[in-house]
Amino acid sequence: MQAQLKCIRGACGATFSIEDVLYTCPRCGSLLETGYPGLKLDSASIKKLWRERRMSNAALDQSGVWRYREMIPFIDFQRHTVATLREGNTPLLPAPEAARYAGVDALVFKHQGFNPTGSFKDNGMTCGATQGLRLGMRRVACVSTGNTSASMAAYAAVAGMTPIIFLPYGNISFGKLAQALEYGALTLQVEANFDQILALVRVLAERTGIYLLNSMNPFRLEGQKTIMVEMLDQRDWRVPDWVVVPGGNLGNVSAFGKGLRELLALGFIDRLPKLAVVQADGSAPLYDYFHSSERGEFRPVTDPETLATAIRIGDPVSWPKAMFEIENSGGTVERVTEQEIADAKAIVGRCGIGCEPASAATLAGLKKLVAARTVRPGEDVVAVLTGNVLKDPDYIYRYHTNQLKTPSGAPILSNFGNAPRVVPNDPDRIAAVLEETLGAGL
Ligand code: F0G
Hints:
- By secondary structure, the protein is an alpha/beta fold.
- The chain has 15 helices and 13 strands.
- A six-stranded mixed beta sheet has the order 4-5-13-10-11-12, sandwiched between helices. A four-stranded parallel beta sheet has the order 8-7-6-9.
- Helix 6 (about 175-180) links the parallel strand 7 and strand 8 (about 185-190).
- Helix 5 (about 145-160) runs parallel beside helix 6, helix 9 packs across helix 11 (about 320-330) and helix 12 (about 340-350) crosses helix 13 (about 355-370).
- The mean pLDDT is about 95.
- Bound molecules: ligand F0G.
């Protein structure tokens, strides 16, 4: 079994060595994916092996990505160095209040915000950085709405490579920018949006030989597909009916679909969950395309807007992969308003779980899918929370203090608000406030 890069366009199907530095097919320009022709695994013994590795202190076994290394055998584990921060290992968290809010009997969050840098990007970045090391790269780059850059900066530091980060100036959360600075990345804030900067960085990578670690890098997606492997391992291989995930550049849903298809082909599972992608109203080109009656050209949104800045992307690179995976799984695409995201986020918070705005699109989207009867209340749903609650504290404070506004300036209601109160340094008056708020009999 020899790992290879393969063009995803069936009519082309060109294959390349995984030691070639390629992001798109040099013949037809389509996206590439990593493939393992002839890969066969004995699912029963491998499942057992993966479970046993949870008891091990070896770095690769402790990683919730490399523990499943039989699914991502693109490096030689004896020869190549792996850049790991023990990523993955993210919990499945039942959330009854969120389930009630969405209108389903039960809901479980797979919370990728528990990762070392606080987002699902770490699952992919450990693979991207490891491949960069294997190729002898000294410098790595990405454009990011914040989480990719935080993750890449950390993994580049671990791997001893120089991280160069391109950010849309003024449109990433402070927490994410702070991470990039703290991990020592050369940070360039460009006066353009994500889509424009990605085009710029693709040209720069070609010209300067810097290794690009955006999600069009097929090795990143190999890592992200293990999120589904870990989820199923944690559920003793019980396949959910739905997996709900927010969509921005659409790398994550593409990775999930690939991973699930491979698990099915290898005999680890006997059916696929349906994939539901949720986009923010002002940045929903996949929603428009998926639901258009005649699927002509894919139309990017030229001026994407949303306070969920992580998914403020109008021209998602991985849309062809995402479309294939969603349709192949029998899934769907939903879109949600700023108000819906903000309220859903507060509900995730009330569950004691919390997440960043883009992640809350999953709960908001699920609620709409249930209302539309696309998802039935009794179905088994896993919603993926992509980023940690502390990624964007400014948004939280504004919501709870009734100061949050949509990008066009309309007020967002603080429907589940929880504003802090200022009280004097006086026990009697504080006791009175407590009694008034919480009731008598304190
Ligand atoms: N949720 C969060 C928290 C994200 O940071 C992103 C993407 C997504 C969802 C969407 O995932 O792009 O795979 O569809 N953030 C990228 C970044 C674009 O630069 O950090 P996707």
